[in-house]
Amino acid sequence: MSDPGPRNGLRFQVLGPLRAWRDGTELDLGPAKQRVVLAALLLHANKPVNLGQLADAVWDAAPARAVNLLQRHVSGLRRVLEPHRVPREPSRVLAWTGTGYLLAVPDGRLDLLTCEHQAERARAARAAGDLPGAARALRCAVRMWRGRLCEGLTGPLLEAERDRLAERRLDLLEERIEADLALGADPDLVGELRRLVGAHPLRERLHGLLMHALYRSGRQAEALRTYQEARRLLDEELGVEPGPELRRVHERILAADAALGPPAAPLGTTAAAAVRPARLLPPDVTGFVGRREQLAQLDRLLEEGEAPSAPAICVIVGTAGVGKTALAVHWAHRAGEAFPDGQLYADLRGYGPQRPVTPGEALAGLLTALGVRRPDVPARLEERAARYRGELAGRRMLVVLDNAATAAQVRPLLPGGPDCRVIVTSRDSLAGLVVLHGAHRLTVDRLPADEAAALLRDLIGERARAEPKAVGRLARQCARLPLALRVAAERATAHPYHGLPVLVAELADLRRRLDLLDAGGDPGAAVRTVFSWSYRHLPPDTARAFRLLALHPGPDLEPQVAAALTGTAPETARRLLEALARAHLLQPTATGRYGMHDLLRAYAAELAAAHDAPAASPGTPATACDR
């Protein structure tokens, strides 16, 4: 599995299952005891850990051969973490200091250290009177947790550290909620606090925060009732009365203390600051399947960006119908709690039946969503972009820019600071965003065979589960392309009394397949139409090359073959192939060849027959899937 973080060096996770990545690839950390040794070293990262401490971490009672066993585990870890280290050369990652083993972990490469760094930033921000900054840092700290410490591993040290860090996490959660309350009422806090109180019923501070949140939401009676429930619980379970802090919250609510109420908006605050957080996402996709690796890469967006003054940007790219928007929207819904200030969404219509949205039009819509009144939206593009960046400053928001055509269309819509996260989807590679703005490119390929079959089973239901061979054949006929799979599933469910082999037989003729993969009535649900939106963006010479490449009968081809098919010089053919790959109408392979999936080839062959006769044959070439 790929690491969604920086693509160089080592990265470790202990706040959840123990995991490690090197240069973006997840590592096999070996047997359980070796993993416990690594966990102990990470819990003391950048500090020497002597053999006695390691033995105590691994065993309740160390065996006679403990030192030899520990040295063997350390050697195993060195092979995993530094596979290219020359034997007997000193380790730069896991070094012997003379008094113990030291695991060197740079800043930002261990979630536990990142959490503590963010907690320290929060303390400094609070001391400086920067409450929004403190709240943001605390949210970053809490998001480092993905489960219990080194979940699944056992050992004396881990058991003790689990309790300590679980308490630490609760402390940070309480501090974060306290900061959020100080910034103003949020209805979502009540639900979150009720869940926390249910999980930790004897924690008085949580009861007090719940009372405060209820009072802030105009629910004074519920706040007072919460106090009585907490008082009864403490008496029944512990035989004690509430402590002074909880009693003080109760007394302030009874007295309608003005300090408990939401603060007045500071002078100069825009109207946008007072509006409810914008939640503009379209509905989540039904039957979302797989994409675990891509979702994990998007999860890394939630960590603080490497550049302190720039937003983290992920560009999701891929061919038509592959599910770029579905992935972006599904992840955005899943990560909603990480963006308390809202989620913006704009369909830029880069590919489709309508003209693309201009940056100025998109900015007008986004500013309105942020609470800026329409008469106050500036007229000039530069002024709109500046106002937009100003409205986003200091807010933790997600911006989803869907279906972009070019980097120029996206650039004015990028936030100015590091607190926001941006997802852009496009059929183009958007190299300009990668080169000039440090965007991470996430390429979405067609589904693996097992996930394509799983999607069909989810969409069709029991009939698909009863006919696995037909499902596998149907997935191949749809080129494992999510859009085609969904259209085929719709055809299957529209004719519930026909067996799936009937649909498979209908789709067997590649020349008719695109006709059948059309749900009718909606151009976005017709595979041929969706392909056409990519084709019409191509320059004439690239479009001609796309058509003629369909004449090649194999699944992929070399640049020399492309030159022969297009009648161009090898250098020109290579340029055309690269242009088609950037548009995701061809897929480069590791061997320097270029491939085109069956449905795209069928579409290109149709175009060739219509535009390039007599050079093109009207028949569609056979494909590997149909042989």
TrEMBL record:
PROSITE patterns according to UniProt: OMPR_PHOB
DNA-binding region(s), chain positions: 1-105
The protein's name in its UniProt record: OmpR/PhoB-type domain-containing protein
One biological process term in Gene Ontology: regulation of DNA-templated transcription
CDD domains the UniProt entry points to: BTAD
Claim: Amino-acid biosynthesis is one of the keywords in the record: no
OmpR/PhoB-type domain segment(s): 1-105
Stated family: Belongs to the AfsR/DnrI/RedD regulatory family.
Family annotation (InterPro entries): AAA+_ATPase, AfsR-DnrI-RedD_regulator, BTAD, OmpR/PhoB-type_DNA-bd, P-loop_NTPase, Sig_transdc_resp-reg_C-effctor, TPR-like_helical_dom_sf, WH-like_DNA-bd_sf
Keywords: DNA-binding, Transcription, Transcription regulation, Two-component regulatory system
GO molecular function: DNA binding
Keyword Mitochondrion listed: no
Domain of life: Bacteria
